[in-house]
Amino acid sequence: MENDIRHHAPKRRKRRHAPPFWQADRPYLREQQVSDARFRFLGYIMAFLAGAINAGGFFAFARYTSHVTGSMSLLSDMIYLGEWGIAAVAFISILCFIGGAAHSSWIVFWTQQKRFRGSFGFSMWLEAVYLLVFGLFGTTALHWNVGLDGMVMPSLALFLLCFIMGMHNTVITLLSGGAIRSTHMTGSATDLGIELSKLLYYKKKQHPCLPHVNVNRPKIRLLTGLMSAFLGGGFIGAWGYQTIGHHFALPVAAILFILGAGSVGYDVKLRIKFMLVRWYKNHQQTKNGREKSLRP
User: What is the CA radius of gyration of the chain?
Assistant: First the structure.
């Protein structure tokens, strides 16, 4: 009897572990799972670079180029005060950040449509190219008198850096499905506070009338790491700008080139291989055609 029951009992399905919250949708490579450690490392590196670029921008322009909230507040204040020059700078800075985000996103979508596996790597490489331009020319770009006590701001370099920050934030945002923002720590701090409140609530004695709260400990570790990386990058960026000036952007660009090299290199090798195969087939067809024409 027991054997019959065991024989006819339905087989238990193996429980599939849900992917981490930042890989729930996996909008980046649907055919390939990215390891948790590798993805965390990429997030930390991108937050570190964002902190470095942001700190360097502050020492160059006395403004945080990734702080869109601050630019919006500055825009409204300057409109009220009638300082139209500074208001124009703030407004264009916001547009440049949005343009950088749109540019990076378009590159990712276009390369994915063309079946490139390194779509995010291409976006990183483009960002690195723009950082090279900033690192080589920097604050020596054209200047624009904005009219507040004769203050002069390096407009083109400022706008370029805002554009770059928009690109930088978009890459990791698309990779994580919106779970990670590399340039904006306000959202990370808010999410961390929410998770910490769950942790404190969870430690209390459970009561049947109280709602059950699940603590997302991996998310706490990730957000803490991102904020720490951004802080460390800000320190390095401030030190780098004070030491070598706007050339501090050159090593940052080099790191972005290295991060995107693997995926971009794979695509380049694959395209070269296809081109060689196509050339060889065309060459063989041409050769066979000549041989047929020479036959009597």
Answer: 26
- Domain around 82: 34-262
Collapsed DSSP state (helix, strand, coil) of residue 60: helix
Q: Which two tokens stand for residue 158?
A: 């400022």
3-state DSSP call for residue 118? coil
Q: Are 167 and 107 in contact (CB under 8 A)?
A: no
Question: DSSP characters for 146-211?
Answer: --STT-EE-HHHHHHHHHHHHHHHHHHHHHTTTS--SS-HHHHHHHHHHHHHHHHHHHSPP-TTSP
Residue 296 lies in a domain: no
- 93-149 confidence digits (pLDDT tens): 999 999 999 999 898 888 878 777 777 888 888 888 898 888 887 655 444 444 444
Evaluate whether residue 239 is within a structural domain: yes
Q: Angle CA(103)–CA(155)–CA(102) in degrees, nearest 5? A: 10
Bridge partner residues of 145 (DSSP): 152
Q: Total domain count for the chain? A: 1
Q: Decide: helix, strand or coil at residue 144.
A: strand
Residues in the chain: 296
**230 in any annotated domain:** yes
Number of alpha carbons in the 13 Å side-chain half-sphere of residue 116: 22
> Which of 67, 44, 51, 54 has the alpha carbon at shortest distance from 223?
44
Got the DSSP string for 254-281? HHHHHHHHHHHHHHHHHHHHHHHHHHHH
Comparing CA positions, the residue from 7, 19, 282 lying closest to residue 176 is 19
Q: Does any domain span residue 291? A: no
For 269-294, what is each residue's pLDDT tens digit?
777 777 777 777 776 677 666 666 66
CA distance 223 to 230: 11
Cα separation, 44 vs 188, whole angstroms: 13
